[in-house]
Specification:
Helix content is 51%, strand content 8%. It is an alpha+beta fold and 544 residues long. It has a single domain (154-536), classed as Orthogonal Bundle (Cytochrome p450). The strands form four sheets. Strands 1-2-9-6 form a four-stranded mixed sheet. It has a three-stranded antiparallel sheet with strand order 3-11-10. A hairpin with a 2-residue loop joins strand 7 (412-414) and strand 8 (417-419). The longest helix has 25 residues, at 272-296. Bound molecules: protoporphyrin IX containing FE. Residues 147-148, 160, 331-332, 335-336, 339-340, 343, 399-400, 403-404, 466-468, 472-476, 479-480, 484 line the site of protoporphyrin IX containing FE. One of its GO terms (biological process) is secondary metabolite biosynthetic process. Heme binds at residue 474. Keywords: Heme, Iron, Metal-binding, Monooxygenase, Oxidoreductase. Pfam families: p450.
């Protein structure tokens, strides 16, 4: 009798057994006069061909990681809902640290433990450094001409080097130090002005504006002031860069059905692809005049990121098309704004909910910096408690709660499970950050847990991979971290913050590809230092 394969190791033997058994069946059918009727012959042939097809072309039996059963066609898409990081965290409690899910026709695994993260992003990082196909990468990044959505290939290696050198090198970070300081102080000046007379100020909005201004400085430095309040018109509606970035985050948080069930792509269910295309053209309206202006002034010495891209384009005419310039600018704008502003907003949110912790930060600032000057970036190294507050924020509110998806470039095995080529990899940063097996009382905001702890966020401690690890680790890590730390320090040092009477500061999470705070963060804000220290730094503060 024909045996079904029990494991893929014995598959070759079984295939030849199956072939010879089928041959003998067919021979018997031909010989046998009892079974000579057409019906029996046809039936035997159909069964035989089906069996042979299954043995030769059927998928070998894989030992996939455990996971929930999916629906036909849709797989597990329907149970993910609008907050996939929450549903995936719940599911992983049941199915463990390495879970299989199916997103339409795409297979995925979810990593929910530091041990698994170490295998994927260190031991087998060379296999998992790819990105899967995404409609976002294809549409918004002009066919994957950026860094974040690009597959792992020569193109990615080249561009990653460009951005590492031109934006994120230590030299560049130092060079941009004054800009960062100026932007943060300008933002404080605006908040103090807005908050005069006990007017509540929305810190979430202010932090979003600050992050956009900071990234605009990096990208369009020289004529920056000309561009910062520039708006474009989409269908007659004026849009600022900040509102376009918000729109991108919201659209990108949606599940693009066509990405997972390709034959439905034409239907564009939910209309997300059309929205993305429209948004790309809004970004172009914003970018094109800036690019033209930069082209006219190519000789200037103090080059910004766009200048660098345009000079690369001049050197490699065909190898560096306009679309690549736009994709890279889009990439830096989207990767560097909401991430930092979300982190700063969550840190301030938790500090407003915990006045005792806020007071400890302020006490440390007074001790290390004093009240006779403003915070400098060089102070950060000595602000141990402040750094613990930022780490605790990254633990509880990872900017990218399910990571940026990776993809297996070849078949492999992890922890005794098969991971076939093209499997998507989601990193459950949110679930790991709130896992009671790893963190005591994980839903309590408690920076003390990082005092005297060796754990940092730089990719060596797999329980806190806020910026990822391995080849695809966030290149903006040092800049993003510094910006969050300096902003929180400068605000708490220069301003009194309090919650308006009757307001409860909530921690409701919003929808999007990142983890935004859903509601505004309204605070009362007033100057904390003597007037001369603001004046020295050129901040206009009205003390009346
Ligand atoms: C607190 C702030 C930030 C956080 C928490 C953060 C987090 C992350 C994470 C988790 C990834 C995915 C890593 C992976 O695939 O394994 C990533 C990728 C990336 N980030 Fe950040 N990021 C931050 C700030 C920035 C800034 C300021 C920039 C640029 C100005 C930036 C640019 C990028 C880019 C280009 C990638 C894609 C890298 C690649 O695919 O090779 N990020 N970031």
């Amino acid at each position: 009798m024909l045996q079904r394969p029990t494991s893929y190791e014995t598959e070759g033997v079984i295939k030849s057994e199956a072939a010879s058994t089928m041959a003998s069946w067919l021979a018997q059918i031909q010989k046998s006069s009892d079974l000579g009727s057409d019906v029996w012959t046809l039936l035997a042939l159909v069964v035989g061909v089906a069996l042979l097809h299954k043995v030769f072309f059927g998928r070998k039996k894989l030992r996939l990681p455990p996971g929930p059963r999916g629906w036909p066609v849709l797989g597990n898409l329907p149970i993910l809902g609008t907050m996939p990081h929450l549903s995936i965290t719940e599911l992983s409690k049941k199915y463990g640290p390495l879970m299989s899910i199916r997103l339409g026709s795409a297979s995925a695994v979810v990593i929910s433990s530091p041990e698994m993260a170490k295998v994927f992003f260190r031991t087998q990082d060379h296999i998992f450094a790819n990105r899967p196909f995404t409609i976002n990468g294809q549409v918004f990044m002009y066919n994957f001409q950026d860094v974040s959505f690009s597959p792992y290939n020569e193109h990615w290696r080249f561009l990653r080097k460009v951005i590492d050198m031109e934006i994120f090198s230590n030299k560049r970070l130092r060079h941009l130090k004054d800009f960062r300081g100026e932007e943060i102080l300008a933002s404080i000046e605006r908040m103090l002005e807005e908050g005069r007379g006990g007017n509540p100020v929305d810190m979430k909005k202010s932090m979003a504006q600050l992050s956009v201004e900071h990234i605009c400085r990096i990208c369009f430095n020289n004529n920056y002031s000309q561009w910062k309040s520039k708006s474009c018109h989409s269908n007659g509606v004026p849009k600022t860069l900040a509102s376009m970035l918000d729109e991108w985050i919201a659209i990108s948080g949606a599940f693009f059905v066509g990405e997972y069930i390709p034959y439905l792509r034409k239907l564009d269910l939910g209309g997300f692809e059309a929205q993305l295309l429209r948004l790309r053209s809004d970004f172009e309206q914003f970018l094109n005049p800036i690019i033209e202006e930069h082209r006219k002034n190519e000789g200037r010495s103090d080059k910004d990121f766009l200048d660098v891209l345009l000079s690369l384009q001049r050197e490699n005419q065909d190898g560096f098309p306009n679309d690549r310039v736009k994709a890279l600018i889009n990439n830096v704008l989207i990767a560097g704004t909401q991430t930092t502003s979300d982190q700063t907003t969550w840190a301030l949110t938790e500090l407003m909910r915990h006045p005792d912790i806020k007071q400890k930060v302020v006490d440390e600032l007074d001790l290390v910096v004093g009240r006779e000057r403003l915070v400098e970036e060089s102070d950060i190294g000595n602000l141990v408690y402040l750094k613990a507050v930022v780490k605790e924020t990254l633990r509880m509110y990872p900017s990218v709660p399910l990571g940026v998806p990776h993809e297996a470039m070849e078949d492999t095995q992890v922890a005794g499970h098969d991971i076939p080529k093209k499997t998507r990899v989601l990193f459950n940063a949110y679930g790991i950050g709130r896992d009671p097996k790893l963190w005591e009382d994980p839903t309590t905001f408690n920076p003390e847990r990082f005092i005297n702890s060796p754990i940092d966020v730089k990719g060596h401690h797999f329980e806190l991979l806020s910026f990822g690890a391995g080849r695809r680790q966030c290149p903006g890590m040092d800049m993003g971290l510094l910006l969050v730390q300096v902003t929180v320090a400068q605000i708490l040092h220069t301003c009194h913050l309090s919650v308006p009477a009757g307001v409860v500061v909530d921690v409701e999470e919003g929808i999007g590809i990142t983890l935004p705070k859903a509601n505004p963060l309204m605070v009362l804000i007033s100057p904390r230092l003597e007037p001369q220290f603001y004046i020295q730094k050129g901040i206009k503060v009205n003390f009346s």
